[in-house]
Amino acid sequence: MTERTPLLHYRLSISVQESDTLPALEKSPAVARRKMANDKPQKLSTFFGVVIPTLLSMFSVVVFLRIGFVVGQAGLYQGIGMFLIAYFIISMTVLSICAISTNGALDAGGAYYMISRALGPEFGGSIGIMFFFANVCGSALYVLGLVEAIVASFGIPEDGTVAMVGAQRILPSGYWWSLLYGTGILLLCLLVCLVGAHIYSRATFLIFLIVMVVLGIIFVSFFAVAPRVVLLPLAPPNSSGPISGNFTGFKLDTLLGNLEAGYTVDYTTGNMMNFATVFAVLFNGCTGIMAGSNMSGDLKSPSYSIPRGTITAVIFTFIIYNLLSLLVACSCDRVLLQRDYSFLRDINIWRPFVTIGVYSSTLSAAMSNLIGASRILYALARDDMFGRVLSLAKRTSLSGNPWVSVLISWFLVQLVLFAGKLNTIASIVTIFFLLVYAAVDLACLALEWASAPNFRPTFRYFTWHTCVLGIVGCVVMMFLINAIYASASIAFMLLLLLMIHYLSPTSSWGYISQALIFHQVRKYLLMLDVRKDHVKFWRPQVLLMVANPRSSTGLITFINDIKKSGLYVLGHVELGDLDTLPSDPLQSRYDSWLSLVDRLNVKAFVNLTLSDSVRHGVQHLLFISGLGGMKPNTLVLGFYDDCPPQDSLLDHALPAGGSTDTPHPPKDPEEPLSFHFPALRDKGGAGAGRRAGPGAAGVRRRHRRRREDAEERGAGPLLLPLRPGGGSGAARAGAGLHVDVWPLNLLRPDSSSYVDTCSLFLLQLACVLNMVRAWRGARLRLFLCVEEGRSPPGPEGKLQQLLRDLRIQADIHTVPWDRVVALHWQRQRRAGRAPEEEEEHYDEEEEADVLGSHAGGFPSNAAQLTDEYLQAVNQLVLGQAHPPPAVRFLYLPRPPADTRRYPAYLRQLDLLTRDLGPTLLIHGVTPVITTDL
C-alpha cells in the first residue's frame, strides 16, 4: 500500500491541474474549432441511410404501375418465377456488396470506392464513370416518369379534345411543357441535395412514410372494396377490344384464370409481349440495391449499415412484390390487368392515394440517384482519376457536402431531360446498373480467388460460386434487355479503361491483378516439375551478370532478344561485408535497377547480392535466382577488357533499348532519369571480370553445376547492331545483316568435331536469335574449317544434312586453314609429342577436370598454344568478315582445372577475340537441341 500512495497522489494532482485549466482551454481557438466540428450534421444510421433509400429506389413506380402488367401478361406462376430470377441475380450482387463493404473502412463513392480499391484504378475509374452516368440517367428517368404521371392526371390532351378535359386537367401538355415540368421537379431535388445528406434523409423519411401508408391502404383496399366494373383506357388506334374489366374480389375462378401465361399486345405500345420483354420491365424496378451503398461517405458505420440495411430492403421488397402479385391474381380478371396498368387507383378506397404514392416514390428515386451521382463524382475527383478535369468537383461545404459535384450532376441530368421520353433512356439505365453490379461481383470474385490474407470480411455468407452466378446473371440480363446497348456499354467501358491506363493515375490502393498473378504463378510453378523436362522444350533461361549498367545497356537488350520467352535475370554483385556496413546498400539501389528495366523495356527480373568477392557473389546468384522449375540454365558474363567504356544512359542518341518481342513501346528518351549507378570502372561492384581471375574460376565452377555459359566481348560496338530494325520494310526485319557461327573449338585444332554438345549449343542460340522479329531477316553463316588432304570426304554435305535435320537455315562456308593449324602442329612436335599422344593426354585431362582434380603433372593442351597461332586464328576469323557480321558466335573452351593457369587462359581468349567486334564465346554442357518431333 505504501508503494501505491505516491502514484495515487500524482494522478489526483494531475486531475486537479487539468480541471483548473478547463475554462482557459475552452476559450482557445482550437477548442472553438473542435466545437464547430462537433456541431456538424451527424452521420446517418442504418435505417435512414441505407434501408429507406434502397426501399424507395427498388419500389419506384413498378410497385404501383407494373404489378398488374407482369401478372396479366406472364400469369402468377411465371410472374413469381420472374421475381425469383430477378431477386436471385441481385441477391448474388448483394452478397458481394456485403462482403466487400465489411472488409475494411469505406469512404464516399459507394460501388466506385469498392471496385477501385479492389480492382485498381483502371477498372475502378471506368466503372465509376459508368455508375455516375447510370445515376445521372436514372435521375432523369424518374423525373420524366413523374412528369408523365402528372401530365396523365392533370394534363390537357394535345389534340384539345373537350370530352377529355375535366376540372382536374388544367396543365398544358407537349414536349416543351413537359421539359419545363421536369426542370422544376429537378430544381426541387437540387435544393434538397444542396442542403446535404441530413436534410435528404429527412425528406426521404417523409416520402417513405407516405409510400408505406399508400401501400397499406392498397392492401386494405383488396379486402374492403366491393367487386366493381372498371372502365379501361382507350386502346391504340385501329385496335379493338373490351372497354371494361372486372374487379371480382377474392374468387377461385379469378385465381385459376390468372395462373398461366397469356402474352398479348401491349395496349400502350402495340408490341407483342413475351417472357423477355416482360422480364426486362420487371427488372427495371429491382436495380436500386446500390442506393444505400452510394451513401457510404455519409453513414456512421458503412461496414455495419450497408450489409444489414441492403439485405433488409431486398427481403422486404421481395415480400411486398409477391404479396401484391398474389392479391392481384386472386381479385382482378386478366382483361383488367392487361388493359389498365393503373388499375390500383380504380380499386382503391380513395383514388388519389395511389397517385400520391407514385409521385412520392418517383421523386424519392430521382433525389436518390442525383445525390448518389454527386457522391460518385466527388470520389472520382478526390482520387485524381482524371486529373484537372474534375478538380472543381473536390470542393465541399463546411458541412462536407460536395456542392460542386451536386451542381455538375444536376446540369447533366438537365441535359438528359431533353430526351423527352422515359422509354428512350430506360434500357440504357438498366444496362449501366447491371454492368456495375457485374463489376462488383467481379471485384469480390477476384479478391476471393486471390486468397489474400487481408481479405477477411466479417460477412461470410458468400462464395466464389455466388460471385460467378451474379456475373453470369447480370451479363445475360444485359443482352436480354438490349443486345446493342449492352455491347455499346461494354465497349465504352473498355475505352475508358484503356484511357485511364494510358493516363496511369498514381494510387496506393494495391492492384488485385498482382495478387491474382501471384496466386496463379505460384500454382503453376508447383506444377512445373523439373523431372519432366525434355530437351525439345528447352529454352534459354539467362542470368546476365552486369557490373555497371551504364556501359551494358546494349548487352542487356541483346540478351533480352536471345532469351526466346525464357527466364531473364539481371544479376549484380556488390562487393562488401554486411557486418561492417550500417545497413544493406542494395535496398536503395533496387529501385534504380527496376527503373532501368522499365527504361530499356526488357522482360527481366533483378537480383542483387552483397559478397566479399565476385566469384562468391555469382555463386550466390546462381543459387537464389529463379524458383522451382524456372531457374537459370545459361550464365552470361561480360568480357572484361581495357576498352574505354561509354555511358549509354546519358547519351540519348544511342538506342535506349526496347525488346522486339514486347508490345509496349520504349519510354520517352528525353524524360528525366532517376538512375543512381556508380561511375564507370568503379570498384564498388562488378559482374564478372579478370580481377584476381574470377572469370575463369567462375566458368570452371559453373561447369560442375552443369549450366551453359557464354561470355560476351565487345559491349561497346554491340550497341550499334543491337537494333537491326528501326527503319522501314526490310530494315526492320534485319535484312542485310549476318550472324557468323564458328562451331569448332579454335583453341583445339586437333579436335575437328562439329557435332558435340557445345557446337550444337552455338547453333541453337544462333537459331534462337534468328527467330526474333528484329533479327529475322539476318543470314546465318556457318564456317567449316577444313584441311586439304586430311579432312574426311564430304564434311560439308554431312553438315548440311545435320542442319536440315535440325531445321536450321544457314549458309555453309568452307575455310581452308592448313597454314594456321600447321603452326599448332609445329609447337606440338617441338614439345616431343605426337598428335595421337596429345589427344590421349587431352582426354585424360578432360576427364580429370570433370572430376574436379588438377590433372596431375600433365600440362593442358591450351598451354601448348602459341601467340603466333592465336593471332593467326584471329586473322582467319577477321578475314571472313565480308560483309562484316553483326555478331559472332565462337566456341568457348573449357577452362583449365589448375587455377594457376587462369591468367594464361584469359590471355588466350583475349588474343583470339581481339578486334572481332561483338562476339559471344559460348560453352554448353547439356544437350539443348534434338531432331525428334
TrEMBL record:
Keyword Translocase part of the UniProt annotation: no
Alphabetical keyword list: Membrane, Transmembrane, Transmembrane helix, Transport
CC terms in the record's Gene Ontology section: membrane
The keyword Membrane is annotated on this UniProt entry: yes
Subcellular localization(s) per the UniProt record: Membrane
Topology with respect to the bilayer: Multi-pass membrane protein
Region called Disordered, residue ranges: 650-723, 830-857
Biased composition (Acidic residues): 836-849
Residue ranges of every copy of the Amino acid permease/ SLC12A domain listed in the record: 49-543
Family: Belongs to the SLC12A transporter family.
Any GO BP annotation: potassium ion homeostasis
Major localization listed first in the record, in broad terms: membrane
Name by which UniProt lists this protein: Solute carrier family 12 member 9
UniProt-recorded Gene Ontology molecular function terms: potassium:chloride symporter activity
All copies of domain SLC12A transporter C-terminal, residue ranges: 555-642
PANTHER family recorded: SOLUTE CARRIER FAMILY 12 MEMBER 9 (PTHR11827:SF96), SOLUTE CARRIER FAMILY 12, CATION COTRANSPORTERS (PTHR11827)
Membrane-traversing stretches: 44-68, 80-106, 127-155, 175-197, 204-226, 272-292, 313-336, 356-381, 402-419, 425-450, 462-484, 490-512
Start-end of Gly residues biased regions: 685-696
InterPro entries with a match to the protein in the record: AA-permease/SLC12A_dom (IPR004841), SLC12_C (IPR018491), SLC12A_fam (IPR004842)
